Amino acid sequence: MLQEIDQKVQQLMWDVQKRTLDRMKQSYDVNLKTSYKDLVTTVDKENERYLNQRLREIDPDAKIISEEGYGDQVNDLKGHVFIVDPIDGTMNFVMQHCNFAIMIALYVDGEPTYGYIMDVMNDKLYHGGNGDGVFVNNHQLNTPANNSLHDSLMVLNAGLTLDGGHNVREVGKQARGLRMYGSAGIEMIYVITGRIGGYLSYLKPWDLAAGMVLALELGLVVKGIDEQQVNVLSSNLVLVATKQVASDVLELVD
Ligand code: 2AM
Ligand code: CA
Ligand code: CA
Ligand code: CA
């Protein structure tokens, strides 16, 4: 049952990638949400409607949490819950036409079960979970080397770094280098492939859900800065990192 859902959601990720690439060749509207830094396009909305409709066909009893308002009102993680980000990195989508992702996760009775991150412009689907391992397309990923902060590149939330809260500038100073890509999905891909040692940011459920499944499946650490386990529905400032980077960063943040 779960394996069948997994196969169908993988196919859905390739279908939505193709639709997105086709849609980018035509014009679309860009609207402001809360400010000129917070955008939504017709492609975000069309993708979300399409994904939610296909997910309802794949798994009719599941509930759906999604960013742009076409999901269900969900207050708990009982049963099957899909968490959908129809375009992650909308600002990059609009301004750069790259460095954005499409993400889905399946949580079963609260358990992080399957995660899917589609790197649209690079034709790469990162997926896995449920004890199967993590794959990029059909190639299985190894757990990244357990490097320290001193030996790692680090991604920090831009706003938090600018205002200097939680002593994060010290984290940036002690890392081997600091990077910011503007898409939680792309940043999570870099952590699970070992290109980045740790990622610290404010994450909503749809920013976190898929990457959290893949990171946990690989034995990476996903924690709040209070060192507590993360609840995907109510997460705040979240660290995804190698074990050593997590321990180095949690010692520095306040
Ligand atoms: P989005 O493009 O799906 O909105 C940008 O730095 C990254 O943070 C993107 O992954 C973006 O997702 C996400 N993001 C944007 N606004 C956010 C907010 N208010 N809280 C948390 N994440 C946000
Ligand atoms: Ca958004
Ligand atoms: Ca997002
Ligand atoms: Ca989004």
UniProtKB/TrEMBL annotation:
<dbReference type="InterPro" id="IPR000760">
    <property type="entry name" value="Inositol_monophosphatase-like"/>
</dbReference>
<dbReference type="Pfam" id="PF00459">
    <property type="entry name" value="Inositol_P"/>
</dbReference>
<protein>
    <submittedName>
        <fullName>Inositol monophosphatase family protein</fullName>
    </submittedName>
</protein>
